[in-house]
Write a structure and sequence with these properties.
The complex is a heterotrimer of chains A (239), B (128) and C (97). With 128 residues, chain B is mainly alpha-helical. Chain B has helices at residues 3-31, 35-56, 69-76, 85-115. The N and C termini of chain B lie far apart (65 Å). Residues 91-97 of chain C have low confidence and may be disordered. Chain C is 77% helix and 0% strand. The chains are: A mainly alpha (239), B mainly alpha (128), C mainly alpha (97).
């Protein structure tokens, strides 16, 4: 009986979605003429190069035009990381030990991880520094750096990153983000307004405060995701 | 081939896979009894919704919304770049979906540690 | 044109088959790897629809990090979906005695 109801619910949801999205033609342009700026997307496409000198429009939207949402997202990620650590907290009892990783991995993985790990860090740093010129940005670079740390965690049995360093990096990066916004307030404009001068297109130093914010976000996301992995891999269990 | 029929086939392929992902994830959340399987279903619903967003923002013949010198000429001539606003929304949504999955899985671990089972039909005691 | 149709239908078939496999399979480790395959094909979809930022983000977060936190959860809970629970008293009753 319950199965019948669930199948009926699925059919109704599927029918409503299919009916709605069959009226939205795939690939049809709804932005209008870009020069006329009738829609939000057309406005962003038209004004990114002239007013901001940033090549990546999605970066300009995420950091500059909708920068407050990015502040909220960074806060949500911070809450998720600290919530995870506090849910899994357990006072160490007698007779408990780390059983997550029992022995070292093979010789191939150990040597390979030690060679590749600096290259992954440099790749992650490149991705979040050049976020306003190429596809990339703070979140992508932070996730790449966290994957590099995950490789080292998997290869060596007792590889530890000290929690103090991660906490300090994360806190300083978060304070930097908010202080860039307050700098906009102090300079007489709105919160998170672009107050540095914008350079020329396709330069590394261009776009005002956009590279600064994305570098802070990159460090913060990398420290948070590494902290999440460290918490999950190292909490004590009683088996 | 007739362009309208071709467009119809491609749109059924993309929209169909997105709506199919949402329905399969919804089935897993509603029917399954093991907590980890429910969280897998949540993650599949996330994937379907993100695909639906980007599919709505796609413009036929458009290119990626990144400017180079040639890109500026294209926009000046009125040809399209793909709509950049849904991409910014989905960027945020992917990261937040990962955060939600991480907290949900930590709750699953904590529940297993307490009740020694992860199936919701075997957890009988209502109080901690 | 024919190539486009074949490619799009192949992607749709792979993603739906992986989703059905992830839901139906009783061994949870295989289901988690199927979720990783969903993220991979999703990243290809994003790249085809001219969204390189989103494809990078989905590839970096969905494939590596989501799979590893699922595997750590499976390590700390049960491996199979149809497990039989071990009858044991919950911890809190021992502490209050």
């Amino acid at each position: 009986m319950k199965r019948a109801f669930i199948l009926l619910l699925l059919v109704v949801v599927g029918w409503v979605l299919a009916d709605t999205f069959s009226q939205i033609n795939f690939g049809e342009s709804r932005m209008g003429d870009i020069k006329q700026q009738e829609t939000v997307g057309a406005y962003y496409l038209n004004n990114t190069v002239e007013k901001l000198s940033v090549a990546n429009v999605v970066t300009a939207i995420v950091v500059n035009y909708r920068g407050f949402d990015t502040l909220g997202e960074v806060t949500v990620l911070f809450l998720a990381a600290s919530g995870l650590a506090s849910i899994l907290y357990r006072r160490k009892k007698r007779g408990e030990h780390d059983v997550m990783i029992l022995k070292n991995s093979s010789q191939l993985l150990q040597t390979g991880a030690k060679l590749i790990f600096p290259a992954i860090l440099v790749l992650g740093a490149y991705v979040f520094i050049h976020g306003h010129l190429t596809p990339g940005g703070g979140f992508q670079g932070g996730a790449i750096i966290a994957s590099g740390f995950l490789l080292m965690f998997m290869a060596y049995k007792d590889y530890h990153v000290s929690h103090n360093v991660l906490t300090w990096v994360e806190s300083v990066a978060g304070i930097l983000f908010v202080s860039v916004g307050i700098w906009g307030l102090i300079s007489g404009a709105t919160f998170l307004e672009n107050v540095l001068g914008t350079g020329t297109l396709n330069d590394l130093i261009s776009g005002g405060v956009i590279p600064l914010i994305y570098i802070a976000v990159g460090f913060k996301v990398a420290a948070e995701l590494t902290g999440v992995l460290e918490t999950l891999l190292n909490f004590k269990t009683e088996k | 081939m007739d362009p309208i029929l071709y467009n119809k086939i491609i749109s059924v392929g993309v929209y169909g896979s997105a709506i199919g992902l949402i329905l399969i994830g919804l089935y897993a959340v509603l029917v399954k009894k093991h907590l980890t399987k429910i969280v897998i279903g949540l993650s599949i619903i996330d994937a379907g919704v993100h695909l639906l967003f980007i599919a709505v923002g796609f413009i036929k013949g458009g290119t990626a919304p990144i400017f180079s010198e040639k890109g500026i000429e294209l926009v000046n001539q009125g040809t399209a770049m793909v709509d950049p606003v849904p991409q910014a929304l989905v960027l945020t949504a992917i990261v937040i979906g990962f955060g939600v999955t991480a907290v949900a899985l930590s709750l699953v671990i904590r529940l297993y540690r307490h009740h020694h089972t992860a199936r919701i039909d075997h957890i009988k005691s209502l109080k901690w | 044109m024919i190539f486009n149709i074949i490619f799009f239908s192949l992607l749709a078939i792979i993603i739906l088959a992986a989703a059905i496999y992830a839901v139906v399979q009783k061994d949870l480790l295989y289901a988690v790897i199927a979720t990783g395959v969903i993220s991979l094909v999703l990243s290809i979809y994003f790249f085809i629809m001219q969204a390189p930022d989103v494809a990078l983000t989905e590839a970096a977060i969905g494939i590596a990090l989501t799979t590893i936190i699922f595997v750590i959860t499976i390590r700390n809970t049960s491996r199979r979906e149809d497990e039989i629970p071990v009858n044991k008293e919950p911890d809190r009753e021992e502490e209050t005695k």
